Structure formats: structure tokens, C-alpha cells
Amino acid sequence: MVLRVRVSAQGQADRVELHKSSGFARLDDAALEAVGRWRFVPARRGDEAVAASVLVPIVFRLDS
Q1: How far is CA 40 from CA 26, 30, 52, in A?
Q2: 54 vs 36: CA distance, rounded Å
Q3: CB of 19 within 8 A of CB of 3?
Q4: Per the confidence metrics, is the pTM higher than 0.85?
Q5: Which residues contact 17 (CB under 8 A, 6 or more apart)?
Q6: Residue 31, by phi and psi: left (phi above 0), alpha (psi -120 to 50) or beta?
Q7: Is 55 exposed, middle or buried (0-12, 13-18, 19+ CB in 10 A)?
Q8: Distance CA 58, CA 2 (A)
Q9: Quick one: residue 9, left, alpha or beta (phi over 0 = left, psi -120 to 50 = alpha)?
Q10: Helix (H) or strand (E) holding 30
Q11: Is pLDDT at 64 greater than 80 in this prediction?
């Protein structure tokens, strides 16, 4: 699955959208909720922090 995240200049996830689904709604919803709480290092233009979008791959793996 891949999420598109709009990261603010303060490093917060302003908007999280599904870019490519895992095929399972429960996994998609869990990833959207979790990534929405993450903090990011914002993009920079010179010395200034700026808002930008980034694609975040999420891999679910079952360990036994």
C-alpha cells in the first residue's frame, strides 16, 4: 500500500490519502489513522521549512 501525505512546514501530516490500496479496507484504514499521527521532517527550500507531499509505502507482514 502507498499513502500520499501532505506534510506541513511544522512536520505534521496535514492530509493523508490512499494512493494505492492494500486490497483490504481494515488495513488501509489502520495505516491512514497511524500515519496521520506521525511527525515528519519537513521539506526545506534553502533555510526555510516548507509544506510538501510525499509518498509513504506501508508494508504489512505477518510474523510467525
Answers
A1: 24, 18, 11
A2: 13
A3: yes
A4: yes
A5: 3, 4, 5
A6: alpha
A7: exposed
A8: 6
A9: alpha
A10: helix 25-36
A11: no
Residue 20 CB neighbours (<10 A): 13
Q: How many residues does the chain have?
A: 64
Give the chain's largest Cα–Cα span. Answer: 46
> Distance (Å, rounded) from C-alpha 31 to C-alpha 51?
21
- Residue indicated by cell numbers 521539506: 43
Residue 62 pLDDT class (50, 70, 90 cuts)? confident
pLDDT digits (tens, 9 = 90+) for 20-30: 999 999 999 99
C-alpha cell at 46: 534553502
